[in-house]
Write a structure and sequence with these properties.
binds adenosine monophosphate, 7-stranded parallel β-sheet, Rossmann fold, 558 residues, 21 helices, alpha/beta, 4 domains, single chain
């Protein structure tokens, strides 16, 4: 097994590794550190998952190469989120403790730009930044990177997923051509390859594990349920694991908040994290999750990026993400730092094809599992309670009241007394599972059909595939805009530059009113009632004809 002494690191850095408890380099560190140190100058692409020790893989070589005597910015690390930016800065500061590089500055949105500019003016040899804020500061001349020697793009695929392509290319255009660029990414989608092609020269490629592979420590299981049983399924998964710390992923901000609220209402320690919360609220939620005051964190993909909590036992996919690549990042939140983890997926029969795609991408088999039975959950919860009672340390104060308490129970024998104490906590579980918690068997014979409400209005909307939408994304957008649940938006058909959807007739005025003032990606959205009758069961080719002619009619009218 390799150790930090034979990677080419100087004494100060090997001693630091020892001091902070890094006994052996991780795979990405043993592969990347020697390569970066051997070459006085090189570009590099490293494909590695989150949680594999990437920060030290680029951090140690960077610290060895940067000149502590020079005060100008020599190294820039770009990362997708504020959380990740702060986390990298903290790690880098701890690695730099013996190097004399003592001003590593974090730059990110949601905090004072003046304060950050002040730290830069003091001389920041290394800057760790989110793309948006960095671009802003360059534009305002608050940071200079014209003498940059090393640029690291961390979680490049995440940055591009989040729409930072323009910001990154703009930042890179302010840097010298002869700098070294080191790109780290969990996956290699087209956009990452595009950045590499445009800004890197003959990069050395290093892959840790197989390309696009989920971490080996993570196993994947899925549960097929009926469309309306998702929440019940989630409760079963949570109740059956009495020692659970989990991130639950939803697709939209609205669902994220709704699921967290429903969990809290039914007695769980849960909270939500999503883009509608202020930075301060998000910090509060994250701190309580880190301190284990909350065990269930319900999150959107964007908000969960950069979450660095090592002992998450489960990732629960309440809904699968639209972009299959995103799943790798979700499941990478568990199974970190050498521990094993599980990624659980709740899905309907019609989503099974996505699982097949995921298996191919991740190169691992996903197991279909049965949800824990009510009996099993009841037994687990009872055992947990019995253990809690056995381990409880009674407060001395109770002694004062014991005579009265004993008087109260003088007619009870030991067995009935134990039963009654357990019942206080336990009854809500057994009652729930005997009544509303029961689940119907999923209908596996066919994909699920959307109910036909009959009394609906069909709308035309001027956004479509060209705007990056598919029916699922458009439905999520409409749900969020109109603050409606899935029953409010039906029969979404996405075409090239426009789409159609139905709502119950009573929502017609609300929809028309709302879309007088709505934007999509900065473009004014136009919504009008479609002249077509709400049809459903048409042959695909015919339907397209209808839509095309309806569009022609609409154009003629204008
Ligand atoms: P990263 O992928 O850089 O976010 O690292 C994930 C976690 O692993 C962090 O908490 C690091 O401090 C820790 N870590 C990184 N390298 C090592 C190592 N060689 N030995 C032990 N822990 C490490």
């Amino acid at each position: 097994m390799s150790n930090f002494n034979n990677l080419g690191l100087n004494d100060k850095l090997t001693q630091t590794a020892q001091k902070i408890g890094f006994e052996h380099p991780t795979e990405v560190q043993s592969k990347v550190i020697p390569v970066l140190l051997e070459h006085s100058t090189t570009d590099l692409i490293a494909l590695a998952q989150t949680g594999t020790g990437k920060t030290a893989a680029f951090g140690f070589p960077l610290l060895q190469k940067v000149d502590p005597e020079e005060k100008h910015t020599q190294g820039l690390i770009l990362a997708p989120t504020r959380e990740l930016c702060l986390q990298i800065t903290k790690e880098m500061q701890s690695y730099a403790q013996m190097t004399g590089i003592n001003n590593i500055v974090a730059i990110y949105g949601g905090a004072s730009i003046e304060q950050q500019a002040k730290s830069i003016r003091r001389g920041a040899q290394i800057v760790v930044a989110t793309p948006g804020r960095m671009k802003d500061m360059i534009k305002r001349n608050l940071v200079k990177i014209d003498q940059l020697e090393y640029c690291i793009l961390d979680e490049a695929d995440e940055m591009l997923n989040m729409g930072f392509y323009e910001d990154i290319t703009s930042i890179l255009s302010h840097t010298p051509d002869d700098k070294d660029t080191w790109l780290f990414s969990a996956t290699m989608p087209k956009e990452v390859a595009r950045i590499a092609g445009k800004f890197m020269m003959d990069p050395i490629e290093i892959t840790v594990g197989a390309k696009n592979e989920g971490t080996k420590n993570v196993t994947h299981e899925y549960y097929i349920v009926n469309r309306n049983d998702r929440f019940k399924a989630l409760k079963r998964l949570v109740d059956a694991n009495t020692n659970l710390t989990a991130i639950i992923f939803c697709r939209t901000k609205r669902d994220t908040q709704k699921i967290a609220d429903q969990l809290v209402e039914t007695g769980y320690s849960a909270n939500a994290i999503h883009g509608d919360l202020s930075q301060q609220q998000r910090d509060l939620v994250m701190n309580s999750f880190r301190k284990k005051q909350i065990k269930l964190l319900v999150a959107t993909d964007v908000a969960a990026r950069g979450i660095d909590v090592d002992d998450i036992t489960r990732v629960i996919n309440y809904q699968l993400p639209d972009e299959i690549e995103v799943y790798t990042h979700r499941s990478g939140r568990t199974g970190r730092a050498g521990k094993s983890g599980k990624s659980l997926i709740i899905l309907t029969k019609s989503e099974l094809r996505k699982v097949r795609q995921l298996q191919k991408i991740i190169g691992q088999k996903f197991e279909e599992s049965q949800l824990p039975s009510a009996d099993f959950i009841i037994q687990q919860q009872l055992l947990k309670l019995v253990n809690q009672v056995r381990e409880a340390q009674p407060d001395d104060k109770i002694d004062e009241y014991m005579p009265d308490i004993m008087e109260n129970f003088k007619d009870e024998d030991k067995e009935s007394l134990i039963k009654k104490f357990l019942a206080v906590e336990f009854n809500r579980f057994s009652q729930y599972y005997r009544t509303e918690g029961q689940m119907s068997k999923p209908d596996k014979s066919k994909g699920e059909k959307i109910k036909d409400h009959g009394n609906e209005t069909r709308f035309f909307i001027n956004v479509g595939e060209k705007d990056g939408l598919n029916w699922m994304k458009l439905k999520d957008y409409l749900k969020d805009e109109l603050n409606e649940d899935k029953n409010g938006i039906q029969k979404v058909d996405v075409m090239g530059t426009f789409s159609f959807f139905n709502t119950p007739r009573e929502l017609q005025d609300k929809v028309l009113q709302h879309f007088k003032h709505a934007n999509f990606k900065g473009r004014k959205v136009e919504v009008e009632i479609s002249k077509d009758k709400p049809k459903r069961k048409r042959k695909k080719i015919k339907r397209e004809d209808n839509i095309k002619s309806s569009f022609k009619r609409r154009r003629k009218k204008r």
